[in-house]
Amino acid sequence: MNSTWYTVGDVMTHAVVAVGRDADFREIAETLQQWQVSAVPVLAGDGRVIGVVSEADLLTAQDREPETYRGMTAGAMMTAPAVTVHPDSPIAEAGRSMARMHLKRLPVVDAEDCLVGIVSRGDLLKVHLREDGELAGQVRFELIAALHPADASGLHVTAEEGRITLSGTLPDKATAALLEHLVKGVPGVVDAEVRLGVPA
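Now predict its structure.
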């Protein structure tokens, strides 16, 4: 079971379509249409991501170079450098990058900037669509990680349509408040009801 802070590697798509620097206008357009994507990473010969070429880049080239755009290559049309993310980056970091740059997806690269996957807005939302059983298991995992095992053993977690109910007993009220905050921070939790008693 992974920790609350899901990484890009947990949700990314591993099978990725990409083009080389020398791919021409038609090849790029056909690739976008065939795979029904709006942009593709552009790779150097060694697999490093050197840019991204999108439908918008193609339309801009067509508009600016009406006589010669068909002969233009990905290297000439791409947006560079590409905004990328690493597999071990938190999904929140990828989401912020997409929002800030108005992007729908990001290439995922390794330490050498070689392409290993792609992550989209939809991928980042997957953690919010988990089954209740899986979600309750994730919350239990987080509670065990945050508490002494003896304290965690007295807690009960149930989930219904993303709403978590946490019941049981804890040593003190301060711990109960911290746990409520922790539970509400688990991706996929819609709301949390905490019914924790404190021994007299």
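The chain has nine helices and eight strands.
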